[in-house]
Amino acid sequence: ELKKLLASQTGLHPQDQKLFFKDKERDSRDFLDMTGVKDKSKMVLQEDPQSQERRYLEMRRNAKMEKAAKSITEVSLEVDNLAGQ
Q1: Would you say which domain of life the source belongs to (predicted)?
Q2: pLDDT digits (tens, 9 = 90+) for 60-70
């Protein structure tokens, strides 16, 4: 929940965030009060470069797949037009 709230304020995707408390990264699934975080506790938010790179590569791969699907559709339409003649 905290990462979602921070994402809206920082523009940083929740999967690209790393939250630290007392110099240890906190798991997204952990409840903050169970890890010792109290009101007014200082937490550090860092951008996770590996996660950002993975998302970028996935985005490029998806773009290539979409381009290939579009090309296949165009060829299929052309074949249908030629078959109809």
Answers
A1: Eukaryota
A2: 999 999 999 99
Average pLDDT of the chain is: 85
Q: Is 17 exposed, middle or buried (0-12, 13-18, 19+ CB in 10 A)?
A: buried
Task: Compute the distance between CA of residue 47 and CA of residue 23 in angstroms, rounded to an integer.
Answer: 15
Distances (CA, A) of 17 to 1, 39, 68: 12, 21, 32
In the chain, the domains with their CATH numbers are: 2-84 (3.10.20.90)
Under DSSP, is residue 42 helix (H, G, I), strand (E, B) or coil? coil
Question: C-alpha distances in angstroms, 53 versus 41, 65, 74?
Answer: 30, 18, 32
Helices (H), 1-85: 2-10, 49-84
How is residue 30 annotated by DSSP?
Answer: S
